[in-house]
Amino acid sequence: MLEYVRQFISQHIELTEEEFQTLASKLHLVSFDKKTKLVDIGDVATTFYFVLKGVSRRYFYRGKQEVITHLIKEGGMMGSVISFITGEPSRYIVETIEPVTAYSLSKKDLDQLYSTDKKWEKFGRKIITAFFLQLESQILDNIRYSTKERFINFMKHNPELVRRVPQKYLASYLEIQPETFSRLKHLIVKEK
Amino acid sequence: MNTAFTDIDPVLFDYAQKYLGRFMPITREELVELLQYCEIRKFDKRTIIVRVGEVDNYLNLVVKGLIRKYLPVRKDEVILQLATEGHVVQSEISFLTRSPSMVVVETLEPTILLSLTHDKMEEALDKFPKGERLGRMIVSGMYIKKDENRYNRLSKSTRQRFFDYIDHHQHMLQRVPQKYLASYLQIKPETFSRLKALLSKRQK
Question: Which one is the CATH code of B5-130: 3.40.350.10, 3.50.50.60, 2.60.120.260, 2.60.120.10?
Answer without folding.
Answer: 2.60.120.10
